[in-house]
Amino acid sequence: MSTLPKVAWIGLGIMGSPMSENLVKAGYDVTGHTLERDKLDRLAAAGGTAAASVAEAVRDADVIVTMVPASPQVEAVAYGPDGILENARRGALLIDMSSITPQTSVDLAAAAKDKGIRVLDAPVSGGEAGAIEAVLSIMVGGDQADFDEAKPLFEALGKTIVRCGPHGSGQTVKAANQLIVAVNIQACAEAVVFLEKSGVDLAAALDVLGGGLAGSTVLARKKDNFLNRDFQPGFRIDLHHKDMGIVTDAARTVGAVLPVGAVVAQLVADLRAQGDGGLDHSALLRAVERLSGAQV
């Protein structure tokens, strides 16, 4: 009989499916719910249990993990008569691993406290590959005792796991992460177009750049996307557009000026307006190509 906590997992998308499966591999009893039948079947095939509703999934859970696209979806699964707060048991730990606004996390923690439910905000970085390989970076906001309790579960999902402060802190750090990633991808995309137009061997150039100060996790992870023009989504432009809105609004609230971030946010918005919102965020290369006169 496993002594590990029973887990309810809400949201089985590009990130949620491999993450929940990694918990199953680690020995956790995972019951999942999502809107897509094929994703429920996938979890069941991996050894988890499919639930027909949020209420059914969370009813007997010790830990509830949510991994959904944005604040409205978190609120949809958390609140209301069929939501998490009305159906989870008192004392349960709710870990929201979605990327949402810091204020949404703060509000959720306050509402959950009234129901006797503890909350951590724990967004992640590393993309689909990091989720599959269980090497995600996990940035956490919430009480230290709850973080300590959740640490073994986090260790089944990632490698860099840090409590960043009180409720909302994880989401604030994730917003900063998304700012850095977007600016980095944009710089890489501009370099790729510059190199190609200059007639340089692109593969060789990216190899040597990756070994120097210009090297980054972004370049290492996205190099093949650039080389092969493969923009199958690991992290969609639509979601990065949402995240750039979060960091822009949060920065305005605290009085931080993000001049480069503002430009990149507009470039992400432009790419989305061109119909590329469903592509991987490495498709920022397409925007640079358009600006440079290419037909894409």
Tags for this model:
3-stranded mixed sheet; 296 residues; 14 helices; alpha/beta; 9 strands; 55% helix; 6-stranded parallel sheet
Question: How does this structure look, described?
Answer:
- There is one protein chain.
- The chain has 296 residues and is α/β, with parallel strands linked by helices.
- 55% of the residues lie in helices and 13% in strands.
- It has 14 helices and nine strands.
- The chain has helices spanning 16-25, 37-46, 54-58, 71-78, 84-87, 102-113, 127-133, 144-155, 169-197, 202-210, 217-228, 237-254, 259-276, 284-291, and strands at residues 7-10, 30-33, 49-50, 63-66, 93-96, 118-121, 124-125, 136-141, 158-165.
- The strands form two sheets. It has a six-stranded parallel sheet with strand order 3-2-1-4-5-6, sandwiched between helices. The chain has a three-stranded mixed sheet with strand order 7-8-9.
- Strand 5 (93-96), helix 6 and strand 6 form a beta-alpha-beta unit.
- Helix 1 (16-25) runs parallel beside helix 2 and helix 9 packs across helix 14.
- The radius of gyration is 20 Å and the shape is globular.
- The termini are far apart.
- The model has no long low-confidence stretch (mean pLDDT 97).
Largest sheet: 6 strands, parallel
Q: Considering DSSP H and I runs of 4 or more, what fraction of the residues is helical?
A: 40-55%
Uncertain residue segments: none
How do the SSEs run, as a string of H and E?
Answer: EHEHEHEHHEHEEHEHEHHHHHH
Structural class: alpha/beta
What's the average pLDDT? 97
The separation of the N and C termini measures 56 Å
